[in-house]
């Protein structure tokens, strides 16, 4: 795949957090938000290559255009700058829960941190600061259960995506450039 080599350059990466909701405002001024569907991420990126590296781009398209997921590093988006170390789940959390009980660890896992569990591909966001032996609040709700003892990955995570391009306009020139779109594989 060309995402992990130096021949095909990936640039202009944009990650979108799609959280469909509707909101209402009462006469009192109180605003209520409700989720209207599942939350998921999309990514857009541009690949640029020299003509001799076109086979790598064609191979990537052939392998993934029919729904085969690919892993993509999220770069700065998932770079953790906090002080939490060795965060693990202390008790099983069921599918649909937004609360995950954590065990002993150092530091604080801060709100806004994106996380991923080892047993499934979905990316979640921590919604409140949590310390050792606390309950981590996440968004969205768990897509799958999480088991006790499982590590919480929060630094330099990757995401699993599925290509969603309607077409692939591949230029026939000495330098090629193509925009890709993909949706989180959940």
Quick structural overview:
This protein has about 190 residues and is mainly beta.
Topology:
Elements: E1 9-18, E2 21-25, E3 31-35, E4 40-50, H1 54-64, E5 70-73, E6 99-101, E7 108-109, E8 114-117, E9 123-126, E10 130-131, E11 135-139, E12 152-153, E13 158-163, E14 175-184
Antiparallel strand pairs: 1-4, 2-3, 4-14, 5-13, 6-11, 7-10, 8-9, 8-12, 9-11, 13-14
Structural commentary:
There is one protein chain. With 186 residues, the chain is mainly β. The chain folds into 2 domains: 99 residues, no CATH class; 76 residues, Beta Barrel (Elongation Factor Tu (Ef-tu), domain 3). Helix content is 6%, strand content 39%. A 5-stranded antiparallel β-sheet has the order 1-4-14-13-5, covered by helices on one side. A 5-stranded antiparallel β-sheet has the order 6-11-9-8-12, with no helix packed on it. The longest helix is centred in the N-terminal third of the chain and has 11 residues. It is globular, with a radius of gyration of 19 Å. The mean pLDDT is 92.
- Unreliable stretches: none
Cross-sheet strand order for the largest sheet: 1-4-14-13-5
Overall structural class, as computed from helix and strand content, comes to mainly beta
The major beta sheet can be summarized as: 5 strands, antiparallel
Give the SSE order as H and E letters. Answer: EEEEHEEEEEEEEEE
Q: Output mean pLDDT.
A: 92
How many β strands by DSSP? 14
Calculate the terminal CA-CA distance, rounded to whole Å. Answer: 21 Å
> How large is the count of helical segments?
1
Tell me the helix content: under 10%
Strand fraction: 35-45%
Round the Cα radius of gyration to an integer and report it: 19 Å
Shape: globular
- Integer tally of domains: 2
